From TrEMBL:
It is an enzyme of class 6 (ligase). PANTHER family: PHENYLALANINE--TRNA LIGASE BETA SUBUNIT, PHENYLALANYL-TRNA SYNTHETASE BETA CHAIN AND LEUCINE-RICH REPEAT-CONTAINING PROTEIN 47. Tetramer of two alpha and two beta subunits. The gene is pheT. HAMAP family: Phe_tRNA_synth_beta1 (MF_00283). This is Phenylalanine--tRNA ligase beta subunit. Residues 39-147 form the TRNA-binding domain. GO terms for molecular function: phenylalanine-tRNA ligase activity. NCBIfam families: pheT_bact, YtpR. Keywords: Aminoacyl-tRNA synthetase, ATP-binding, Cytoplasm, Ligase, Magnesium, Metal-binding, Nucleotide-binding, Protein biosynthesis, RNA-binding, tRNA-binding.
Amino acid sequence: MKFSENWLRQHVPTKASRDELSATLTAIGLEVEDVAALGDSLDGVVVARIVSTQKHPEADRLQVCEVETGNGTVQIVCGAPNARAGLVAPLATVGATLPGGIAIKPAKLRGVESFGMLCSAKELGIDPDASGLLELPTDAPVGTPLAAYLGLPDASIEIKLTPNRADCFSVRGIAFDVAAALGGEVLPLDAAPVSAGSDAAMEIALEAGPRVPRFTGRVIDGVDARVATPVWMAERLRRSGLRPISFLVDVTQYVMLELGQPMHAFDKDKLEGGIVVRPARAGESLQLLDGRTVELDGDFLVVADGHGGRGERAVALGGIMGGSETRVTDTTRSVFLEAAHWIPSAIIGRSRRLGMHTDAGHRFERGVDPELPPIAIEYATRLILDIAGGVAGPLLDVTLPGQVQAPQPILLRRARLVRVLGLAVADAEVLRIFTALGMKVEPLAEGWRVTAPSRRFDIEREEDLIEEVARIFGYDSIPTATPAGALVLVAEPEARIGELALREQLAAHGYFEAVNLSFVSAELLARWGFEGQGVPLANPLSADLAVMRPSLLPGLVEALRHNRARQQERVRLFEVARVFAAGNPPVETPSVAIVVSGNAHAEQWGEPSRALDFFDLKGDLDALLAWGGESHRWTIHADGLPAWLHPGRGARLARDGQTAGWLGALHPQLAKALDLGPDVHVLELALEPLLARRLPKAQPVARFPSVRRDIAVEVSDEVTWSRIEQAVSGSLGELLVELRLFDRYSGKGVEVGRKSLAMGLILQDASRTLTDEDADRCVRQAIAALEQTCKAKLRG
């Protein structure tokens, strides 16, 4: 937000110097980024008029001008391209010193005497424009000191605002904070209602529901659109970073900067029928004021007129920019002024989708006072009538019942204020701070009941009021004290593995830890098939960071892609963080994810290179599960796979029958969409089931030997090893110490669609030595269980 220092002081008179004002703004949270002094050394510079011009006899680009100074005429040699008879421009008289240190003395230029210098805005230090002389209005009083005429000296102050302080996107919004911090008072705004001089009106219909709960307008007939923007208004716009265009446009910009309410002026004669505020239609197009034509959809809102039918023609892009077809021009005679309240969620992200940025959209995205529209219309109407003439119609104010909520009172407890700040602020000071900020305060026995003005969206709870007291009272006034209290040592539960230990274990397996933002783009989630699963942000940093991630994998795979694009052929990354699901409040779930690509092992001479596959990543998973000592509670299934996982090279992971994650290669279509190869494998698990650990117990060394029996069975390719393990262990119970898979075969001698698995049964009894009959009986039981549950067939 950029504004004129003098403009601010007009609303809140203060004796504070410019440096004190800047320091105060920064101290109360309105960080000053730049202060550009304007017109500090303009003594001897006056308003002058060029009476006549002649070509310089010795130079083609110079002119000899007779200039009226209000105290006679002087001869000036000037090389500006716009120097001409009748031009009113600044003149630095002999003896003046300009801001750049240029001392004005009598001089001879190519043999012709010159007694002063006609100046550009850059030479005066009030604008970077050096293309020619600063052209002043023709009615500017000749001989008047330029500083007095332009309201100088002044300064252009630019502050950096946080998204929660949308109220400070106006001079008056800043004035309330300055008044509270410097002990001043904001002067009342002269926005008295304008009496209607005609019955001119337009029908207004709101068809966008709660997204546009208020729309205010007024018809003004008989305006003079050619009238020049007053100097004081034009200068304030310039010092706020805006170029004056024409009066009817400038007045809406001026009111926006002063009050914070974006407005738009339509040429009423170009509007047909009434005004309808509605969602845009799919495929609808609109030519904007900047000349571009945009294609819209139902996510946008438009202001439409009755051209060809009710709400048929869009004439403005709601909350962002007006349309070119109904803009005001020099021929405009009737104006329809519009000021509406668009809620932030209806505007957020729309400008970025169109690749544009507007002052109106910037404000509506952060929130504008819903009580401002009629005030802004009245204020702008008075300015137009005073400067451009005309006759105003009645104020048209349409509000949806129950959609504009009044601020609710908040209780601030005195004891709570003392506890949070660490000091007692006098009741009178607390009352003064809230009153200066424009809040209504009711003293109570236990504190205060405070009602924030409608412009302060950020005041929602008691802590917000405490923050207001702290920042205005001054953080530097709050004493620094070391917190007292004993530290409580909490024992880490032995039945849970620490997250740090998990990170160290993954690093020991050759993985690098990645840290990604918790925000991703909705477009990226759509590619993964996560539409509607993320938690959208109300005020995202950008369109690419608009949704809280429902999974770690999209961001982690983007990190892998980033590394591979920089010639990293073997990438192994992991991340331990939270994912988010919709809820009130959103549900946060700690998770761990792994992405890998490239060779299974780093390049070496000891063994040939081999591309990483599903079983390499599964081996690392097995190591993590065994680390917790409860791998028997985990099972792997081929069903229930998400859309982003390869259907033939993926698996669902479950713990005690409950899905806990997924493992496998990316789906080929997704890998292609992300510009990745087929060798990217991923793993994502809920963190808490992985960190659960079985407490170790001492066991006596077995006194009796173990017995091994090997069997080979033929099963369908669809039968997983976990099903075979469950069948065998369920049939043998405690006698089965270990089940080892030592061979897998498919091919000649085995039917298509089936596989041969050879496994070793390690049998042992803690109370006696197993006999051959015992071992043979166990083998028969295992084979019977496999035949019944897995349709297995024993191979000879």
